[in-house]
Amino acid sequence: MDDTGSTKSHTPSPAVLAALLYLADRAVPTGSDAAGSSAVASTQDITDRDREMLDAVEGALESQLPDAPQLVRSALAEVDAAIRSVRARAEAPSLSASKYDALRSEVLDQLRARSSKGAAVWPPTSQTAVQRFGSWNEALKAAGLATNRLGRAKGQLRFDAEAYDKAMSVFVVDCESRGITATYKAYTEYAAEHKGEVPSAAAVRKFYGSWNTALAAVG
Questions:
Q1: pLDDT band at 59 (very low <50, low <70, confident <90, very high)
Q2: Does residue 53 carry a pLDDT above 60?
Q3: Do the Cβ atoms of 25 and 143 come closer than 8 Å?
Q4: 8 pLDDT exceeds 90?
Q5: First-to-last C-alpha distance (Å) of the chain
Q6: Among candidates 66, 98, 64, which has minimal Cα distance to 195?
Q7: CA 170, CA 186: separation in Å to the nearest integer?
Q8: For residue 55, with 0-12 CB atoms within 10 Å meaning exposed, 13-18 middle and 19 or more buried, which class applies?
Q9: How large is the average pLDDT for residues 8-32?
């Protein structure tokens, strides 16, 4: 099992929400309102609900990194600071599912952890958040983040070559982080869960000429 589907009960919902807040804060570009928010973040009060999120993350990390208590404490401090930073902002940030998964991969590298069979890994995948809350935007709302307003209207889905390459690159990284093979079927499910943000599986195959060519383009 990986940390989606049958293992979704292994990652408490508060830990999923904390991951969204943590990575949303990491996604905010330097030079935005980060300076202002960071100035008050250390003293920003957090709610009981946010504290519940931190407790859930602590439990997840302790199970994930039983032999690295110092790394757990360091990661938990970062999550705490990120939640306070997000709450201190004048406007709640947002992030796309693909950006979340890219940042998640970076965090897993820092934690020296990868998804593996039989274990749920924190931060969970964007798919876990979608499965838990019904859609990506509902997950964002549950975390107190701004919803993704970048979706395209039906019938107006247009992606350039860079968007195709980026979608495939992020998808392959996501598959590697979850320990699964980057198959056409897996991308079909991925595209359905990120509808409006990435090209469909059929569009990818048509654009590159074949699925193998699409994989080779980002390999």
A1: very high
A2: yes
A3: no
A4: no
A5: 25
A6: 98
A7: 13
A8: middle
A9: 83
Contact 34, 28 (CB under 8 A): yes
* C-alpha–C-alpha distance, residues 95 and 175, integer Å: 20
> 174-181, long-range: CB within 8 Å, 24+ apart, which pairs?
174/101, 174/105, 174/125, 174/126, 176/105, 176/114, 177/101, 177/104, 177/105, 177/108, 177/114, 177/115, 177/125, 178/2, 178/3, 178/4, 178/115, 178/125, 179/2, 179/114, 179/115, 179/116, 179/117, 180/2
Nearest residue to 122 (alpha-carbon basis) of 43, 28, 10: 10
Distance between CA 125 and CA 57 in Å, rounded? 14
> pTM for the complete prediction?
0.65
Whether residue 114 contacts residue 179, with contact meaning beta carbons closer than 8 Å, is answered with yes
3-state secondary structure of 26: helix
Distance of CA 10 to the CA centre of its chain: 17
Residue whose entry in the numeric block shows the structure tokens 């964007």: 126
